[in-house]
Amino acid sequence: MQTPPRLDLSGITKRFPGVLANDQVSFAVQPGEIHALLGENGAGKSTLVKMIYGIMQPDAGVIRWNGAPITIANPKAARKLGIGMVFQHFSLFEAMTVLENIALGMDAKIPARDLEAKIVAVMQQYGLKLEPHRIVSTLSVGERQRIEIVRALLLNPNLLIMDEPTSVLTPQEVEQLFVVLRQLAAEGCSILYISHKLHEIKALCDTATILRGGKLVDTCDPAVETSRSMAEKMIGGSLKDIQRGEGRALGKPKLIVQGLSVPKDGPFGVALKDIGFSVKAGEIFGIAGVAGNGQNALLLALSGEVAAQNAEAIYVDTTCVGALSAKQRRLAGMASVPEERNGHAAVPDFSLSDNAILTARDRMGMVSGGMVNARTAKTYAGEVITAFSVKATGPAAMADSLSGGNLQKFIMGREIMQKPQVLVVSQPTWGVDAGAAAAIHQALVDLAATGSAIVVISQDLDELLSLCDTLAVINEGRLSNPMPVAGANIEEIGLLMGGIHGETQTPELSHAS
Amino acid sequence: MRLKLEKRPAPSTFMLIATPIASVLLTMLIGMIVFDAIGINGQRAVVDIFLTPVLASYKWQDVAVKAAPLIIIALGLSIGNRAQIWNIGAEGQYVLGALFAAAVGLYAGPDAGAATLILMILAGIIGGAAWAAIPALLKTRWDVNEILTSLMLTYVSFQVLGFLVGGPWKDPNGRNFPATAPLPEGLTLPILFPGSTVHLGVAIALILPFLFWILMSRSVFGFQIRVVGSAPHAARHGGFDAKQTIWMALLIGGGMAGLAGALEFTGSLKAIGLGFPSGYGFTAIIVAFLGRLHPIGCLIAGIVLAITYVGGQVAQTTVHIPNSTAGIFQAMMLFFILASDILIRYRVRVIKAKPSGAQA
């Protein structure tokens, strides 16, 4: 080859106590190439990228930059080389403007006026719409991501690393992001694109490198592969489809929510406004929406962690549960799984057995006379571990010793095996690998088949479309009218998700009000 | 070469137990060096403070009597600390406990018997809990920091004490000293071993840790305290009320401190004077942490701290250092124990050479 690859990794190995995070990983990214890095959670993608961006050092192996072996001591050195990175979790100050946030992230001191001119120039060049003087807290997630992208582009990167960039975007925002990335690639910038959304990789990337268990398993051309074949390479086995029973009929409404309003907690919270929907026995009801539009508040209001303003707002069958506490709602047959696993759905430094006590103690008879029956808890935790194939050393394993996907399986199993009448779950497969996600989906479908009503709140539209019978979209704390998933219009859902934040209106106008 | 902290896959049980022991040993070592440096026989001071009370059998009863209030208060505090509720006003709750007990004793008159004694002790628990209820109310109602309120109330309690023993409760036959009249024989705690000062309170301090152990490890309440302290959001998700937890943690902490005050009054001092607040409520904070917030740990740590109290008095006469030297040793212990906490969840790795990308 005439020109050396932009980035060439050979034999990269990184070891953590107890884990080999990267084992002899070698691949190359060419100039102007959009290169996908695929893999399940814990496959070693993040570790690899952190070494490229100088956050960590490899234990062994060589990184070549434009053909020359180099050591990238820290992120500053990486940026100097022209490596930019957009993280999955943004590092932005909510109370500061776009311009101030970008200025804070710059290595070089540039006067504000010059910086603003540069920012405007970069935004015009790539068609990124962003108002430099807006306060970050008023921006949508998509707009926040644009700040991070602009921040990276100001460095004139030769390699841009994007970590799960689309997980928080509406379909329309994803399209816009792809336009920017394609333009960058056409100008010769290499892009390392980390994702597990396979159809996006097929649409965007030239090459895909697949990691599994820290090892490189394949480098392939996504245009030739199918989503399924790549998924199977990722999990190293065959992917199961959701099995649905034939001819299932929905029963009577089981969960009825009407006029549910909750004031916002804190300046950056979202208030729920007059939410109403009903879920029939056997139905899976999906709630789509971009992160930060009230999903958290809705889950807390449904789980009973936050009381509704109007006690009549929530019914399970004919029982009014709006005024009941979380514990009482569980006893009434209403279970929930919040989005955040660590510290909300589970206690990280408790054993699985103790985590079973957390939400299953009353329904599964673990308490008598104010004392906990540890043996019952242990047995129940063991049953969940077995039934949901949780990879753990046993009920005594600490929750934080499990991988995210395994902990999520345990948490879902803990609720599902209590056979709740109503189950509300938020982001059931967030950060969970494809194999575990399939198992969780199947368990939800099976629970619905027994006549439970299920609400799935998710930002992953694909997940909702494949799982749910009915779908509604939450935006700024309001819920759209429900629509049947069969025959749903993706375009329309996308517009609902965008709400007034969307690019269908000009941002200047929409935020002037 | 540089040092690096690395997260352990699981918390180290070895470190959990080893660090308190190491803290005590390190305190002895550093104390020795510092005392030598300022021209005092350091080795002698450390031996007298830490070893004489253990080796000399005639000091054991002093250790037992001093350990009892420390253990009882620390048990209550460790529950609060587990739930991340920081009651540092145990000293004031201890004083109020004694005052409540005294009130019952005074109004019962000189001929009262065992039933009144039991009532006095119960009043002590109520008094301590009532004093702790003030920070609990302020915290649950207006989110006022309990660290400040509980500490400030300690100084209020000293004023209450001063007013009562210098005014309405002053012993008429006490030559105008600001102190209550000594308790009549029938209202003092029974002595366990005739001829010694070891009173019933010591037995209570030996039994309570085991009851608390069962409470914390087996009961739903213990579970609630642990969840609230470890993951407040998960506690809410699990249906545990945060405000109720705050109330319970402070009431139990205050109640135990009040109990200790009542026992100290009826068992040891038999009268309340201005010198009644002796710092047990503050030292018990050290006991709770040295004992790793575990009831049995509190039992052991209470004995260790009592040894330093008794040893401090020994060293006062032998090497002529002020009694407050013991306080310095106790503070050093707390310092080391808090500093070494990180070793439970992290390990220190020594990195010799800078790893380079060009090794392979």
UniProtKB/TrEMBL annotation, chain A:
Keyword Translocase: yes
Family annotation (InterPro entries): AAA+_ATPase, ABC_carbohydrate_import_ATPase, ABC_transporter-like_ATP-bd, ABC_transporter-like_CS, P-loop_NTPase
ABC transporter domain: residues covered: 7-238, 257-501
One cellular component (GO) term of this entry: plasma membrane
Classification of source organism: Bacteria, Pseudomonadati, Pseudomonadota, Alphaproteobacteria, Rhodobacterales
Main localization, broad class: membrane
One Pfam short name: ABC_tran
GO molecular function, one term: ATP binding
Keyword Iron: no
Membrane topology classification: Peripheral membrane protein
Subcellular location: Cell membrane
Keywords: ATP-binding, Cell membrane, Membrane, Nucleotide-binding, Repeat, Sugar transport, Translocase, Transport
Protein name as annotated: ABC transporter
SUPFAM superfamilies found in the cross-reference section: P-loop containing nucleoside triphosphate hydrolases
Automatic annotation (TrEMBL), chain B:
Subcellular location: Cell membrane
Domain of life: Bacteria
GO cellular component: plasma membrane
The entry's keywords: Cell membrane, Membrane, Transmembrane, Transmembrane helix
TM spans (from-to): 12-35, 63-80, 92-109, 115-138, 150-169, 189-216, 246-265, 271-290, 297-315, 327-344
Single GO MF descriptor: transmembrane transporter activity
Main location: membrane
Recorded topology in the membrane: Multi-pass membrane protein
InterPro entries found in the cross-reference section: ABC_transp_permease
Pfam families: BPD_transp_2 (PF02653)
Protein name, as recorded: ABC transporter permease
Organism the protein comes from: Cypionkella aquatica
